[in-house]
């Protein structure tokens, strides 16, 4: 029987989180630090860097930051090189940064389609590709892609987002299959309705809020902290025989 503490322990592991200093990514970075990992965070602005540095100190762990737009040409190579320079290895990649742009299908602008696909799909692919080079050398690694309920739904006002998140599920499977012989597991997490600043307006719209709550078997919006357990599970040895899966963390939303 394995020691349960050891199974989930991330001490000496290095995790890279895109968009890890704010939004949901901040919770993932904090969870990984708390579980013992050192963390490399990538974002364009320095928003949240101080707060996360303080948090890391409290965990006796190190967090390092790189300010870069991950959709830039060659960003992936620069990011992985900077992470290896800082920590000499890369064990866990969390592809979290993502955007959503809403519009009617006939009014949708070409540049908005490109923006969404560039960040949610292309940047995720290029970073996974560079990370895989390091992880195959190491003969170990975990790649965690952030999907969405829109990985499984039509999303008619946010169809590029839905298309990119569907593609994340497909890419997760292809990478999982190709990298399994190298002891690298590739999985995705599909968050449901999360109580964040971004969704406050929706929560304050009582008609929409009631519709949403009626659709969630668990009967409530998730707190961001309710996603962390799945991230730690997918980052740890506890999930070593799980690969190619997309795990909904949605209070059962997709069941209805
Ligand atoms: P936020 O917009 O709150 O955070 C996005 C993060 O990514 C920020 O830290 C941002 O930092 C960073 N980022 C954005 N664009 C870039 C870029 N081009 N280069 C580098 N960093 C970038 O998003 P959420 O936390 O809400 O969402 C995170 C992920 O979770 C996304 O993939 C989203 O699709 C998914 N998701 C979210 C849900 C929700 O309810 N919030 C539900 C389901 C899925 P900066 O601006 O400084 O670059």
TrEMBL record:
The UniProt record lists the keyword Ubl conjugation: no
EC number: 1.1.1.47
Keywords: Oxidoreductase
A matching Pfam family: adh_short_C2
Biological process annotations from GO: bile acid metabolic process
UniProt GO MF annotations: glucose 1-dehydrogenase [NAD(P)+] activity
Origin: domain of life: Bacteria
Tagged with keyword Plastid: no
Family assignment from sequence similarity: Belongs to the short-chain dehydrogenases/reductases (SDR) family.
Name of the protein: Glucose 1-dehydrogenase
Organism: Leuconostoc litchii
Lineage: Bacteria, Bacillati, Bacillota, Bacilli, Lactobacillales
């Amino acid at each position: 029987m394995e020691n349960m503490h050891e199974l989930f322990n991330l001490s000496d592991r290095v995790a890279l989180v895109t968009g890890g200093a704010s939004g949901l990514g901040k919770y993932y970075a904090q969870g990984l630090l708390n579980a013992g990992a050192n963390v490399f965070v990538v974002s364009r602005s320095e928003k949240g860097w101080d707060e996360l540095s303080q948090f890391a100190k409290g965990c006796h762990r190190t967090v390092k930051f790189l300010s870069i737009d991950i959709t830039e040409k060659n960003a992936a190579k620069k990011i992985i090189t900077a992470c290896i320079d800082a920590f000499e290895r890369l064990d866990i990649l969390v592809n979290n940064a993502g955007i959503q742009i809403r519009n009617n299908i006939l009014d949708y602008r070409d540049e908005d389609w490109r923006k969404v696909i560039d960040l949610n799909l292309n940047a995720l692919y290029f970073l996974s590709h560079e990370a895989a080079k390091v992880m195959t050398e190491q003969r170990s690694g975990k790649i965690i892609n952030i999907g969405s309920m829109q990985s499984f739904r039509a999303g008619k006002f946010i169809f590029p987002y839905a298309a990119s998140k569907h593609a994340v599920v497909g890419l997760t499977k292809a990478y999982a299959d190709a990298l399994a012989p190298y002891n690298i597991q590739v999985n995705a997490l599909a968050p449901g309705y999360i109580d964040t600043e971004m969704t406050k307006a929706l929560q304050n719209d009582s008609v929409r809020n009631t519709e949403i709550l009626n659709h969630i078997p668990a009967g409530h919006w998730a707190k961001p902290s309710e996603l962390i357990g799945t991230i730690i599970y997918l980052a740890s040895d506890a999930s070593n025989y799980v690969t190619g899966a997309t795990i909904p963390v949605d209070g059962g939303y997709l069941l209805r």
